[in-house]
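forwarding from the other thread:

> can someone predict this with glutamic acid?

sure thing
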Amino acid sequence: MSFRGRFAPSPTGRIHLGNARSALLGWLQARAAGGRFLLRIEDLDRARCRPAFLEDLYRDLTWLGLDWDEPPLVQSERGDLYRDALERLERLGRVYPCFCTRAEIARAASAPHGLGDEGPRYPGTCALLPREVREERARTRPPAMRFQPLPGAWCFEDGLHGPVCQDVATLVGDFVVRRNDGVASYQLAVVVDDVASGITDVLRGDDLLGSTPRQLQLYQALGAPPPRFWHVPLVLGEDGKRLAKREGAFAVAELRERGLPVERVLGVLAAWSGLGDGSPVTLAELVRRFEPGALPRAPVVAREALLREALGWEPAPRG
Ligand code: GLU
């Protein structure tokens, strides 16, 4: 199958240089492979997404020169597909309605925490509710739907991290595939969309490494072959904090609006990707330099001296 990669941002803020680096690497990987590069807007979290962020996102990618080959998929318009997938999982007997509140799950949890993004391991409280109880409870509270993962370690070979294994059933437990507001969860939507788009290679930040075994279980249940995964180590500030958590000076839109030459920004992104020393560079030159084997396998530190020199960045005064 010919290469198909994607960038799947959530427009919940202005994209920062860390996001731009993931987009750049995915784009370079696709271009170097002579494949296609797609854009998907992950806007299921309606409360946090804003049209202005989406406009900035398109402008930022265009400014950086990162083009995409097909009309972008927008998750908020794809509810029918997620519903179909959920019905398939229901027919397989792998999902059930869950009426628990967050507080109830926290109280019932045997272990203090499972995976950060899902909260504590779900103890399975609603898995065995008799039908009458389900019907009764559905009258007062719309349920979420949970998927029952298969037991045992789920392993895959990550392009950068090597073999990765996780026992999803023990660590995460039954996980949400449809939230109780009726919207598909990230885990389900990302799998349905990557399958529908025929994605062969998922390159993304390694903050999502822990989600991949859950997604692999969904691929298996839906009878679709999974893509290859490349989880790129994140960029950290000199203080060891993730770039995403730092002040807005790293927003691409801000650099663009300041009239900074784009080659300088590309130079910084290249330095964080094992593709350069931080000096200005063009996209065409980066396609020539790109080598999947040279992608960083450990967190990269955003050196403040480089940010100052290349981007005119000044640390915010403390206090
Ligand atoms: N929308 C997710 C994010 O912005 C990325 C999803 C993915 O690449 O699988 O963190």
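The chain is about 35% helix and 15% strand. thats all i got for now
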